[in-house]
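Hi,

Apologies if this is the wrong queue. I'm a grad student, and the batch job for Alpha/beta hydrolase from Streptomyces ambofaciens produced an output file that my downstream script rejects. I'm not sure whether the problem is my script or the file. Here is the sequence I used:
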Amino acid sequence: MSDWPLPETFTSSSGAVRWNRLGEAGRPALALLHGTPFSSYVWRAVARSLARDHQVFVWDMPGYGASEKSAGQDVSLAAQGRVFTELLAHWGLERPLVVAHDVGGAVALRAHLLHGAGYRALALVDPVALAPWGSPFFRLVRDHAEVFEALPPPLHRALVREYVGSAGGPGLHPMVLERLVQPWLGEAGQAAFYRQIAQADQRHTDEMQGLYTGITVPTLICWGEDDAWIPVAKGRELAAAVPGARWEPIARAGHLVQEDTPAELTAALLGFLRHLP
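Support response: The file is valid. Your script probably expects a header line. Output copied below for reference.
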C-alpha cells in the first residue's frame, strides 16, 4: 500500500517475500522482523527513525501482509527461520543488527541458533521464545482452524478486528487497526490467517530454548509492562537465560509496543545500539 510500500520482491523457499530498504547505503545494516497477526507496517515509525543512522531492511513474512499467501504454503516458524536466513544472504548482510517482535523473535532466534546467521547484536521485543505460549483464543483457533476458516466473511472480519485490537495496551487508532486487519480479508487473506495459526507449533521454540544460554551477541530484551498476550514475567525469565542480556521494561505499553509507545521503544533501541562494542 502507498502508505507503507514494499516495492522489492524476493522468491524464498516459502513463496514471494515483499521487502524494502530505508536509509542510505553504507550505514550500519539493521533488519526488522514483525510478529503475528501483523506485518512490517507496525515498524513504520520506528523504522523511519532508525533509518536516520542505519540502513533499515523491512519485510513481510511469507503468508503475511503484502507477501505471498497460497494454499499449502509452509508458514511455520521453522520455515520463517529459513526464509530470514535466505533473505540475509540475498541482502548480502553477514552481521546485521536485528530487532524482532513476537514470533519474529522466534524467527530471528532460529536463524541465529539453528541456521548459523550471524548478528552484530539482537534486540527482542515481547518475543515468542519460552514455553508455554499462545493465548487460550490462539490455541482454540489452532486446534479448530478448519472450522474457523469457514466463518462467513463478516464474522471473520469481526473476529480478526477484535483479536488484533486486543494487542494494544491503550488501544489502537481505528485507522491503524483497519490497516492491520486488511491483509487478512478476502478469500486468500482469510485462509492465510487461519493457516499461520494452524502451523504455530511450540516445538519450534522448544527445540532451541536450551540454547539461549549460549547466545554471545549483545542482546536487549524490551517488554511492554501491560502485555496481555505474553506476561512480562516471561521477559524477565528470558533476560535471565541470555548471558548479559539488557532488560528494558516499557511502561504503558501492551504487546504491540511499536504502536503503544513508539518513541519510548525507539529510545530504548537507540540507547542499546549506540553503546555496542
